[in-house]
Amino acid sequence: MLGLNNEIQSLYDSILTKYKEAIILQTASSILHWDMETKMPPRGIELRSQQLSVLELAGHKVITNPQNGRLLDSIEKHPNKYFLSNQQVRNLYLFKKVYDENTKLPDSLVSETAKQQTISINTWKKAKAAKDYNIFKEDLKKIIELKLEAAEILMDVKGTKTPYDALLDSYESKMSAEKINRIFNIMKKGLIEVINKINDSEKKINTEILEIKVPVNDQKKISQILMDYLGYDILSGVAGGRLDETEHPFTTGYYDDVRITTHYYEDKFTSSFYSVLHEGGHALYNQNIPKEYMYQPLGEASSYGIHESQSRMIENLIGRSPEFVSYILPNLKKIIGKPFKGIKLRDFYEAVNVVSPSKIRVEADEVTYGLHIIIRFEIEQMIFNGEASIEELPQIWNQKYFDYLGVQIENDSEGIMQDTHWASGLFGYFPSYALGNIYDGMFYKKMKRDIPKFKKVIKSGNFIPIKQWLKNNIHSKGNLYDPEDLIKLVTGENLTVKPYLEYLERKFSKIYNF
Amino acid sequence: MLGLNNEIQSLYDSILTKYKEAIILQTASSILHWDMETKMPPRGIELRSQQLSVLELAGHKVITNPQNGRLLDSIEKHPNKYFLSNQQVRNLYLFKKVYDENTKLPDSLVSETAKQQTISINTWKKAKAAKDYNIFKEDLKKIIELKLEAAEILMDVKGTKTPYDALLDSYESKMSAEKINRIFNIMKKGLIEVINKINDSEKKINTEILEIKVPVNDQKKISQILMDYLGYDILSGVAGGRLDETEHPFTTGYYDDVRITTHYYEDKFTSSFYSVLHEGGHALYNQNIPKEYMYQPLGEASSYGIHESQSRMIENLIGRSPEFVSYILPNLKKIIGKPFKGIKLRDFYEAVNVVSPSKIRVEADEVTYGLHIIIRFEIEQMIFNGEASIEELPQIWNQKYFDYLGVQIENDSEGIMQDTHWASGLFGYFPSYALGNIYDGMFYKKMKRDIPKFKKVIKSGNFIPIKQWLKNNIHSKGNLYDPEDLIKLVTGENLTVKPYLEYLERKFSKIYNF
Hints:
Oligomer: homodimer
CATH architecture of the domain at 208-356 and 436-512 in chain A: Orthogonal Bundle
């Protein structure tokens, strides 16, 4: 028996060794990506794209090595496979998933898609600058066709009902359009109700505070205070992170090297303020996955949606709470000085929580954000179910924006072409953003119950109990569970949008007096 | 015939495709190295070393693929191989050299050496801090034994006379200890003569100027002026470079992404001043290799020594010339202001050219530097010829420093353990530094003849004719020629130390009045 156990252990170790090589190549790519966005001299772009594609190909080869298939088979057929621990079984399951997906897609399709992505992004940029959808539509069509071809293959591998479900599964494991529709429909109704109440309210919020000029140097000091609050370390001799500046803020990194970026606008200091909190939330997740899972499939996040729940938890549910605002305002006054003198807590709190339906997703407030996502999700389904032609997309987009948000789209650059996702072939990605909010509603409800004197803790500037809760309940689980299972485990409840809608209703009724 | 020509072209292309993949992996590693030295959060070191080792292994696999051997054989035996151009033949020769070296060394030896390097560097750091050679000597012995084992294998591959020659060949192709001894012996005599004349001279140079406090911000402005002078672009929207700060200055990069670093000391501004010129010289070489050689073996420098000649040309022969100093001093006065008021050109020129035998190589002046290298070269030969035991090395080192430089080594940290090279297994590397000086003597003599009004050009701050000369004569040749052939081509002369000694004699006789 010992011999057989050694044998299965050794098969398992061989699989993990392959995974380790692949994930290390991936983390090397992440650094090259980060460098490209933050430090690379502009002329370096051609060499950089070559480096990234060589590394991707190298990783692909490591994963699709036929030996991996034989190893997985041997384990599957091994009489002693039941001696593997749950964690080992999960690692093998996750590895097999990646192996299957990578081996089933023909190399020609993968490389054609990569090429078309570069072309489509390029055309999208030009079309967006020219506000002319006609420039973009043919390349959008091509990338959709390629993604559909891949989705049809992946549908079989993953056993999903539709090709679109196979795409969704890449970002949110085991999530289907059917499930998402069920909760998004409830959310849509709920959000529109809140928006209507806000529209009907007499309350008008003064947002001039948000336009106060705050010099970049002061904003940098504010970033430092926020990172100190989160315990995200960029300064010490054992720092595990960095903060840099990029056009669009992002987080990248693995375990002990997790980097965030922000963008400073002198006349919109809350942009960087909330970016640092948002990216800080992502960073804490990456940094707090248990060290023992490093280089294993378990050493990653549960899903894109769960990741987004961690950033939005810090940005919105904590960062836009009256308690946090009350804690941070005196700090801001100290740093900003005169321009912030006399600013009242209530006014500042209201300003950072103003609700105002808009055309641009990335500028949306906490309440209307979900509708931006629902519109994209509905259109993605129409595309992949063949219910909408490329020609019709702008019209459908504009109509939905008018119906759900009451805004009039003036041109396709602020409409169908506003995001880069589709040009990049990232279909099925958008729902994760709103799922993050929904997960947050559930986590928040549980967290408030678990942490004694929750509001007082936030108000006092003590983030440790919250950080610990997030670590214990979410970060420390790595990729042990698919998102729905993780939520059930943490909250005891099945996926529901109710807590999130209740949170919004409770919060905004107090702000807008409804 | 056309068919056969197509065939050999296609064999050639297959080889180049492999090389391209390998060099791209290498450039990716360079970025990761750069990031490690400049930006990486300290905790990232463990992951980083994994990334670097995975990339190195991936590159090794690409080069040692047995298919490469078969391709090279097919070309060698092909009836139409004579239709290949000289450049194609050189590319194949260089590729074969790398292939042979990589395939002949057993994987076990390569990985054992890599491990021992890490260990030896670590032990060296500890021993240096403790000023105790006993801590280091066993690990030094082990790395020497491993390098000797490799050298004995490479000796056969490369057809060199001795194992040590095989090591030298890795940095300076076709250079042998015999050749180097011949010119180093002449150089040693010449340098000691100059030093003796300086020692006998009445002239005392005041170096207080070098200790004037220059704030880092002013030093940054000085760096910018120097980079503008060289045309090394770090600012524009099409910049191909960067300047960052590290403990030890270095240059890294390929073609359109070439990065230099410096270190600012407030009370020693010439340290950064000459580092920027030195690294700038390296950077210009990397940036000016013809684009058509990119991703080919030809797209690299001729040798370490030729590379060093480019950095020292800018740092010393140009940067420490009376003409350049005369051009730059008014700029320094403008930036530094009051502390530099009244500084006389002659005094500044003398201060940056002071000669003073010292114990530390990296602090050595233009005249004594060569002796530091000769000492190391002589000891390396003794080690690899079995003429010196590990135990004796400190004593031998100290004796040579006393004999050649007249300095008394107080402890082994400023003696045998001052450099990291040997701990890293870099035996055969040191001679390249001094060869760079010798090459410079020859290049300088030719350049002065070729460029009309050479001194006036420098004095006017116009670097373009010099840059163009270096580009036409050296940079544009990529790795078309081994160093000795390149020198012959450029200067019409065989390798000789005479011009370098004449340059020193002429320059320092004027400074020290002998």
